[in-house]
Amino acid sequence: TLQKEQGVRFNFLIWEKIGELVEYEVQKSFDPLFGFFDEISAGSNEQYEITPHHIKTRYYRVRGIRYDSETTTPQTENTNKVFSPWSNSIALLPVQKSEWQLGPAESYTNDNLLKIHQAMLRMAQARGDLVAVLSLPEHYQSRQAIEYKKQVVSKVKQGAAKSLSYGAVYHPWLMSYQQESNLMSTPPDGVACGIIAQRSIQRGPWVAPANIVLTNIIALTDTYNHAALTGLYDNQLNVITTDSRGFIVFNANTLSQDESLKLLNVRRLMILLHRLALREGMETTFDPNNEGTRRLIERIFERTLNELYMRGAFSGDTPENAFRVIVNESNNSRQSVEQGRLVIDLKVAPSQPLTFLTVRLIHGDGETNRVVEI
Fold this sequence. Notes:
Elements: E1 2-6, E2 11-15, E3 23-29, E4 38-43, E5 47-50, E6 58-67, E7 81-83, E8 90-92, H1 111-127, E9 132-135, H2 142-157, E10 167-171, E11 174-177, E12 183-186, H3 189-202, E13 212-213, E14 219-220, H4 226-234, E15 238-243, E16 246-249, H5 264-281, H6 291-310, H7 319-322, E17 323-326, H8 334-338, E18 342-348, E19 357-363, E20 370-373
Parallel strand pairs: 9-10, 10-15
Antiparallel strand pairs: 1-2, 2-5, 3-4, 3-6, 6-7, 6-8, 11-12, 11-14, 13-16, 15-16, 17-18, 18-19, 19-20
């Protein structure tokens, strides 16, 4: 007789020993008639361990095996076996998958979300080469989204206000067909990351990842009238909405309170320059700090920045009006040189802002190369 015994993490099939049987054979199948099956040797054990599963009902049965000669063993080749009848079959039902349960929107608090978003913004600023793409709870309407944005700005300004330029918030959630034609709502941050990457690859990170038509989206979890859309835009929330072409990303703003870094493409251009300064600066790390080295550095960065200018990264009708490389006495005093420091300032005019933004590369000073924005 085959029985099932429930364990803490596993189930066990157990049976009684019959006579002098040497070993046991277990069969498992998805077919209750065992038209197809897998054979499992249980050896001389009188139980078999089975793990829970999530597929469908499985059936088990067992039989004993005896060898026809006292001199033979299970390891002897060409041994004649005598089988007992099959036991009764046992059905093991699939374990239901545990699913997350959403609590009511009325009981939601954003304390943890605020902490996570603050941490993401500060990490992005600390690294200098990341943008934190943020999304809001699905049930947030325009008023709640605006209020949350103000909370984030208030919290972050108390510590590192500049980190706000490293974050962008997207809303509302998107609806699309997933596996087995199930309609599913998903947060917009994943789609936003894809759009940012696509625009960077196709045209460059200095081009705004906005006014882009989304594919495979059939609806939004919320839609906005003109007044609500204007309110979200004015509060620098990146809205996914509809027009005659379909579903589009309406804008691409950061959370920055500094107008010069308000646009996401400007922040990403500055990130590009941050990485560029570190890469190009490595070439002259161990060169002597003299006039010849400074002229070499100037030529290296002017060549690279000119390539970006020709691709449309900067505004200005001439390269002289689009960018400047400053590595002379104005930012390298005699005292600084004597301390082993070399400062290179890259001033650029992004396509939108009318003012120059500056990325500073600092050599030496007893540390590795570092880049700061001023």
